[in-house]
Fold this sequence. Notes:
By secondary structure, the chain is mainly α. The protein has twelve helices and no strands. The protein has one domain. Helix 6 runs antiparallel to helix 12. The radius of gyration is 18 Å and the shape is globular.
Amino acid sequence: MPAQxxxxxxxxxxxxxxxxxxxxxxxxxxxTVTCVSVIVQTVTLWAAIFLTxxxxxxxxxxxxxxxxxxxxxxxxxxxAFTGVHKIGASRSxxxxxxxxxxxxxxxxxxxxxxxxxxxxxxxLLVVIGIILVSWRPEKQIPTFRWWHLLFPVxxxxxxxINHPIRRYALSLSNEPLFFAGLMGSASLAGFIGYLLLxxxxxxxxxxxxxxWPFIMxxxxxxxxILFIVTAxxxxxxxxxxxxxxxxxxxxxxxxxxxxxxxxxxxxxxxxGTLSVVAGTIAIHVGG
Length: 287
């Protein structure tokens, strides 16, 4: 299977995870869906590892890098689900997909790189999309605060860092299934540490109506993680990342179909989502 198709499956499954999480978050909390998702990833992928031959021989450096990525992926999860809870799946996914813009800004300001015309146009499209997506959401979300937008943006920042690290680690040892399982274990360890050490005692809420949506979220996100690692093992970041970053379109479609009762989608959100995705692809193509 080509890397491009696997990257597309990554986008579809990740969007499905956000939409499913939104359904469950009506009855529970972001910390709870994060817990369920981490457990599902760890259990399912390690079962698959042992059923397909056990633990392979891999580079210690690659192991260390994927442990780091697993911990940061926990942050991506929690921030993304919090964003979905606060501002909805369609808006949050659009803002979360701006990681190429963050990478481009870092490259220009710190590395003094000169952006191409495609990067400039892509940046403008992303900025316009962000404005459209975040335009007066308080009229639709009474509890909205402007800083709620920072949750998906922070998730995007961590995602932008994770992709190159994964790609480099896979160049040392090309074992996507094992490393996806290792990421799950690292995320689970980080989550347990967070529960034990965090001064904020946010409760886990086990509402019966949220359990199945959260389990489906965990399965969808596990598949998206496995597919993105596999795609990066077959193709380069510049090929895989723009396709994987189309998930806001699929999240928007899922919202329209499955979340009409929870999250009305306005024209500005649709236009903003398309603008962000177009800009993301342009930044990657011109990068």
